[in-house]
Amino acid sequence: MFKGKGPSGFGYGSTAEEVTDGLDLSERTIMLTGCNSGIGKETLRVLAKRGAHVIAAARTVDKAQAACDDVGGETTPVACELSEPASVQACAARVTELGRPLDAIICNAGIMA
Q: Is residue 11 part of a domain?
């Protein structure tokens, strides 16, 4: 059904490794929500592999820490339960305390019902 590649040279079968090949993110700080499973964890892995400092958010700091431990690299685990405003505010305060400007935010968190 889907064949070929788009104008970027990548297609539906392209891997995160291929898309980021040659990318140096060593001077970048990126916040990622939903870091502990699925696409979020793969995104965390590849960003860390490419040298980014990843602020990795999950519903609990334990889940974020486990994901960070699995992938290595320069990561900072933070708790952020997006359905709870107080948790979001606490997460924002924690990220601000780090004193590192964000170069990107990847909003990958799952279903919010």
A: no
